[in-house]
Design a protein that fits this description.
Oligomer: single chain
CATH class of the largest domain: Alpha Beta
Strand content: 25-35%
Shape: globular
Structural class: alpha+beta
Distance between the termini: 47 Å
CATH topology of the largest domain: Purple Acid Phosphatase, chain A, domain 2
Helix content: 10-25%
């Protein structure tokens, strides 16, 4: 907060000595600090928000996104849409934290009134601090006491006619009783994406999931098949997918679904023409890559019956040196949706399970679902694989039909994306709806 003193009327000068002037200034500063004891000084606990995933109610432009407020740079900033109240920005700390301080550095477009809030799930919020007469500059909230994974600034009254803008949104405290995990990064994932519709149709969902995915600004994106409906022709890819999710195609690692096989020009023809080497980095429709301590395996479940892919998978896993393994493809082994369980991937599960893989991501059924760790036979076990169905990228939702054993959470009818938070030794995730709200938060898992 800027602490402003009023200027008295001019009077003939009576110059005090330097010592008296300095004493007067010190008394004034001491009085101001006593008046705002919870705003004085710097936070002593570690910074736990740097480069963590950030979301916001709006952004003035793609270059003024919420990630700019947590990147530690004094020259980048988040700016909301102009002239609208309320607005908010929130940061996902990746795990439950004990929050003791929040520091805000406002641009000229500041908040006159706002709340600092904390949440365990991104849905229910508890107030940590409140400002009713802000005047911009730097606001340091110290001596806070709150426990949660998400922290947000909820602004209700603008100090200018513009929007809200922050150079820095810093959260201090302890994460899970320790310092933040190393090698942390975020991935956004979804399957079953581009229906043949555009943003001019208010019911069209993939422009909304694309906007959300871009706002999260992850390290990269991955897709779990059925990227383009109905027959995945190259013309449809260009007319629909490219107008939304295509905005970050260069940062996307896709796999094909069954709809990519329906192309009249040939199986996967439009898919290969659109993505090119992005989808075939190793010359095949399946491939692998590394990020941090993670090994990612992108598979083509349309050809799990071909020995070439199975042999490649075994060889790839034998060469892997990373401590955490995630694999993804289109058809899920287990699902409570309309398509149900698909045994085509059971042999692949067996190979991954024997290699101590951690996470499997699928689409095909158009809903969100997470399963407890289980083995290929569907028996819950601590050393099992966690499966997520994330088919809510934009295609028409499917209802939940027969709930499968070990299914822990199911959501149908609410479009969104998976926000995966990974580090050198573990992972968690949240399912974020197109309204920006977290619909489900997963436990924290440790890699096998």
């Amino acid at each position: 907060m800027r602490l402003n003193a009023s200027v008295p009327p001019f009077s003939p000068p009576r110059r005090p000595t330097v010592g008296l002037a300095l004493a007067a200034v010190l008394v004034l500063v001491a009085g101001l600090l006593l008046a705002w004891p919870d705003r004085a000084g710097a936070a002593s606990d570690p910074l736990i928000s740097r480069d963590r995933p950030a979301t916001a109610s709006s952004s003035e432009s793609s270059s003024l996104g919420p990630q700019n407020a947590v990147d530690g740079s004094a020259t980048t900033r988040w700016a909301s849409a102009e002239g609208k109240d309320p607005q908010w920005i929130q940061v996902d700390l990746g795990a439950t934290a004990d929050v003791t301080g929040v520091a805000l550095t406002w641009e000229a477009a500041y908040a006159r009134a706002y709340r600092v809030e904390i949440s365990a799930d991104g849905a229910t919020w508890t107030r940590l601090a409140a400002e009713t007469a802000g005047n911009g500059g730097a606001d340091d909230w110290t001596g806070l006491s709150g426990k949660g994974r998400y922290v947000r600034v909820y602004a209700t009254a603008r100090g200018t006619s513009y929007g809200y803008s922050l150079y820095d949104f810093a959260v201090y405290g302890t994460l899970g009783g320790t310092t933040p995990p190393t090698g942390a990064f975020t991935v956004v994932a979804a399957g079953d994406i581009a229906a043949r519709c555009t943003a001019s149709d208010s019911a069209c969902a993939h422009p909304k999931t694309a906007a959300l995915a871009q706002k999260i600004n992850p390290r990269f994106y991955l897709t779990m098949g059925d990227n383009q409906y109905d027959d995945a022709r190259i013309a449809d890819f260009r007319a629909y997918y490219d107008k939304t999710w295509g905005a970050f195609k260069a940062k996307t690692h896709p796999v094909p679904g069954n709809h990519e096989t329906y192309d009249p020009a040939g199986t996967l023809s439009g898919y290969k023409a659109y993505f090119g080497a992005i989808a075939y980095p190793q010359g095949k429709s399946y491939y692998s890559y590394d990020e941090g301590n993670w090994h990612f395996i992108a598979l083509d479940s349309n050809s799990f019956d071909q020995t070439a892919q199975i042999d490649w998978l075994k060889s790839d896993l034998a060469r892997n040196s990373k401590g955490c393994i995630a694999a993804y493809w289109h058809h899920p082994l287990y699902s409570s949706g309309g398509h149900g369980n698909d045994p085509v991937s059971k042999p692949v599960w067996k190979i991954l399970y024997d290699a101590k893989a951690d996470l499997v991501l699928n689409g095909h059924d158009h809903h969100y679902e997470r399963f407890a760790p289980q083995n290929p036979d569907g028996k819950a076990t601590a050393d099992g694989i966690v499966e997520i169905v994330g088919g809510m990228g934009g295609a028409e939702p499917y209802p939940i039909e027969q709930v499968q054993p070990n299914s822990q959470k199911r959501i149908s009818g609410q479009y969104g994306v998976l926000k995966l938070d990974l580090n050198d030794s573990g992972y968690t995730w949240s399912y974020v709806g197109t309204d920006g709200q977290v619909k489900d938060s997963a436990p924290n898992y440790t890699c096998h």
